[in-house]
Amino acid sequence: MDAKTIAGKTVFFAVMVIFIAGFSSVFGQENSLVGVVIVVMALMLLQRDLSARPLVNLGGILGLNLAMGLCAYASLTDEYLGLVLNLVLVFAVVFLTLQDLASPMHFPFMLGYAFMLAVPVTAEQLPVRLLALAVGSVLVVGMNWVVNRRRFEMTSHRGMEALCRAVASAARDAASGGHPDASAFDASCKGLGAALGDRLKSNFFTTPADRSLLDLMVAVRGLGRRVCSPEADPRLLEGVASLMDILADHEAGKASLEDFRATYADVRSSNRGADPLMMSAVAAVDDALSRLSGASASFPGGRPPVRAMGVRLREDLRVDSVRFTFAVRMTLLFAMWAFVWRHWDLENAKWLLFTTVAIVQPYVDGSMQKSVRRVAGTLVGAVAFMALAALTGSDVALMSAALMLINYVYTVLDPKRYDVQMAFVTVSALIAASMAVPTDTVVTERVLYILAGVAVATLANFVVLPYRLGQETLDLAARHLALAREHVSCLMSSLRGNPDDEAEANCVVKSAAVSRKIAMNAEREPSPELEALADSLDDLAARCAAAYRSARDAGPEAREAAVRLLDGADPQDGLGLSSADSDFLDGVAGVVDSYRASRDRLADLAVAGRVRSDPPAVRRSEKLHRSNEL
Question: What is the pLDDT of residue 310?
């Protein structure tokens, strides 16, 4: 670690200390921990972009913080009322804030609620606490807006430009007889996809264009993969390279949308009868870019209908949803320990609340290792505290200085190992507790309660609605494929004159929710086979949506030909049809091919024993448009 880094962290630590001291002086010592929570919340939420709709996000965070302040006060007036309030509030907080596992948003909220329970206020002090929470919420969102307001726009433009350049390079490599590897633009998609996935959350809302941008990314990636396949039509490669160059220039601000459309029209008109799958991929790029340029949403009317929003909620409330299972697990343990603490008046039992927040995990995977490390860190921290107490004679001034020094060292070192983190946290907590409540039993009781909390929380991770990654990811993939069949059924109904835009929108919502879950699992348990399957399913969902949107404008002959394609007939070259109808048929052919490829990938994994046999999801001989219950 160089001197510049140490200096920067020193300044950062000083600013945090000054902020917390100032916060305490304004709102009172009883709210000093609220200032700590505001700092933790602001730093953790910097990884989430709240700048898209800052007022909406401010309303959400303000509402949660005020609800926690009110419930913390009310729940301490009666343990039975507290049990009911904690059951409702903790479930709502965890369910609404758990977005992904890269930066667990629920943690600062639950930590803050535990602090407010542990350091209660009187009725006279309650308005000041609520004011402190309100001001803190504004500071959290304001800091996020200042830092992130331009970051996503820059990330998305740079990401799309890099992706298009990679596809153009791959097309020219293939045209010259090379064998390009799709990994280059797959890597480009990961960062952009993560940024988009961050914004496409169901509770921290974003702009309507974000879903269209995700569709554009999937479409360009699908085109790139077709370029890299051995079946790529050499007649199209130069045209694709030119098209991707124009799109990259458009993202860099060097070309207009009209320039892209002129190049697209030229590629389409000069390659009639060429590879229908590649032409379908090219058409999907144009379709996604057209919708993005109009900032239209993926739903009729520009926003999800009420029914589609209800479907999204039901999707997350499934018992196999990580948000639901984790919220139930955290709620039961937190409410139980809060009741035990209040009912039997066990002062040090409040440490069980903090243990629950730290140990209860969304997934079973890794929870045992984390529990072992917490115990080890706790014991090391307890030993360090006893040594400090002996050296300082428990002098308050010396212990205060030791506390500041320990936290400064922690900030500079920034340890990543969980056991090392817990050692620092434990010694800091014990010093603070010893200054507040001088007693010889604090260390013993603290360690015993921590060990009890770790044991119960670990058991709950494995018993209360356990959520495992391996089989779950494959089951989600099977559901994703079943959703594609529903989507194709919507397309078939539209071709036969009975469109149902709301049902199609439901398919989009469900597919997006399942895709998010698969992506979350992949972050924790990478698998090349599963990632390839997930990418194929995302591509299929994008193709289904594009074909459905194009169906309403297709001519009668093209619609009849599309029905035959979905019924298993061989594709035709589109001769005798208009350019638009020919492109539409190319898109339907792309849906059929993408569906079969995804189905076969999943079936191969089932045969290999990687997924439970699910005949409705993996049967190779089924008709594409047949409906299936999930």
Answer: 53
